[in-house]
Specification:
With about 210 residues, this protein is an alpha+beta fold. Helix content is about 35%, strand content about 30%. The strands form 3 sheets. It has a 5-stranded mixed beta sheet, with no helix packed on it. It is elongated, with a radius of gyration of 31 Å. Mean pLDDT is about 75; it is low at about 15-25 and about 155-160. It comes from Mizuhopecten yessoensis.
């Protein structure tokens, strides 16, 4: 009786492990999913049944505009990463070009709910979604993308960049004012020195 119960437990455990491996541990493939980008805004998310091939998820995407005169705007809506160890383990990376050898636009390695917008400088954007071994339900992202006229391309990164620009302007103003004050002090000291010399000359003449 006990031996029969043990065999049943072993069989049930094997079935559970198989189902988890077959349906709950889908991994990223090495193929690149090609996406044509139009002017209408479109969504890319993970996980998604549209980005699934058998037991494997697409985790690399190449966005290409239908016309070379367009660039691509990517708006990261949300990123949730369960294993926040480092960027080599889990990350969402966006490159400004045809492949990962091109310029890095943005890399997210932790949870983000604030929208982040970046723009390419050409007709390509390459996206890599790096996951730990297997798939966990806590690793998800949602982003939007659309083609823009080439004349309208502007790189918009983070609020930190704007704050950095403002801080730079403030520092420049402070630096400029410091130089002006130093020049004024030098001129004042020079005029005071000249006045003293003139008084000495007058007293000597007397």
């Amino acid at each position: 009786m006990a031996r029969g119960a043990l065999w049943i437990l072993v069989i049930v455990t094997c079935i559970i492990v198989y189902l988890q491996h077959a349906y709950g541990s889908r991994v990223c493939d090495t193929q690149v999913s090609e996406i044509e980008v139009k002017k209408e805004k479109q969504r890319l998310e993970f996980p998604s049944n549209q980005n699934t091939s058998g037991n494997v998820y697409h985790c690399r995407w190449r966005l290409t505009t239908e016309d070379e005169k367009y660039t691509i705007e990517v708006a990261m809506q949300s990123v949730f990463i369960g294993h926040q160890v480092n960027c080599s383990m889990s990350s969402l990376t966006v490159y400004d070009g045809h492949d990962p050898s091109d310029f890095l636009l943005r890399q997210e390695c932790s949870n983000r709910t604030e929208q982040m917008v970046v723009n390419s400088s050409n007709e390509y954007v390459y996206i890599v979604w790096r996951l730990p071994e297997g798939l966990t339900t806590s690793n998800t992202f949602t982003l939007w993308y659309a083609a823009l006229d080439n004349d309208d391309k502007t790189h918009r990164f983070t609020n930190t960049t704007v704050a950095g620009v403002i801080a730079g302007v403030i520092l420049f103003i402070i630096f400029t004012l410091s130089i002006i004050m130093a020049v004024i002090c030098c001129l004042r000291n020079r005029s005071q020195t000249e006045i003293r010399n003139m008084r000495r000359e007058d007293s000597t003449a007397c």
